[in-house]
Amino acid sequence: MNQPYIGYRGAVKPEWIDVNGHMNATHFGLVIYEAHAAHSEWLGFNEEYVDRARCGKAVLESHMRYEREAGLGDQLEVRCWLLAVDNKRLHFFHELYNCSRQCRSATSEQVDIHIDLHARRSADMPESLQRFLREQVRENLALPLPLNIGSQLRPPLNTWLDGE
Description:
By secondary structure, the chain is an alpha+beta fold. The chain contains three helices and six strands; from the N terminus they run βααβββββα. Strands 1, 2, 3, 4, 5 and 6 form a six-stranded antiparallel beta sheet that branches. The relative contact order is 0.19.
């Protein structure tokens, strides 16, 4: 693999444009979700896996960062990295890239948890799946990594009471 998994390619649709004349934040999230779902299926978390193993995965934590706007007709792609995995958790990073403007428009980072769908609790992934996922992590970490992995919200400190 010489590039991250491309989970989505498409153009900004008219119905995604808001009153400010750019792509609404809701649609940034939906496009990244669609890419994440495609990446998850590619990694083996597909309908066949759920039916056979009675297991799946769910989002435990996520963080979206909006960097640049996207406009009507802009061509987008979402680049997906699997950055870490243990026996139950997977760390993903998604980069929404605006190909028309040659800039990154948003990022989304999340941790998913593997769950037993019968018990409705977290559960270890099968060892064979863990081995495959660890290999994907190695391949992804060998690529040039995007900026801001692990970023945190940093609200202005001590300004909540300004103006009083």
